[in-house]
Amino acid sequence: MFIAELTGPAERIGAILRERGETVGVAEGSAGGLISAALLSVPGASKYYLGGAVIYTGAAVKTWVSGAVERPAELRGATEAFATYLARSTVVRLGSTWAIGEAGAAGPANPYGDPVGHSWLAIAGPTESSRRILTGLDVRPDNMVAFALAALALFEETLDGS
What we know:
Order of helices and strands: HEHEHHEEEH
Strand order of the largest sheet: 2-1-3-4-5
CATH superfamily: CinA-like
CATH class: Alpha Beta
Helix content: 40-55%
Strand content: 15-25%
CATH topology: Maf protein
Structural class: alpha/beta
Number of helices: 5
CATH architecture: Alpha-Beta Complex
Number of domains: 1
């Protein structure tokens, strides 16, 4: 069974995008594909969803996003700069109106010293926004869902403000 709490925000986002004739792409890491899955769970998603990738390794960064936009110096994962880089690169690669970038640490550990249960979310498109989420949880699946919900909420807020 799909995670029902992701469906409501995805339906609202889908309705806005379809009404405006806009599109979205996703580059997510620690959410593990749940942001894309939520957007794709809505009937008619092919009208607005152009594609997505789980950017979980350096190889994925190199293959799916590198070269689309200038890479910030000293870039490392699970930062605001990295999530923004993912979103901006996705807009360019897919030619989408919007993109969602997500980079974090779902747990149970993080080699960079960042707290488990943190993620940076970024929206790129006609306007940009970003946000950090700190769940305080050390349960990987719960963090993944929380990251996806937070990304959808940020995207919906950005759409409402644009």
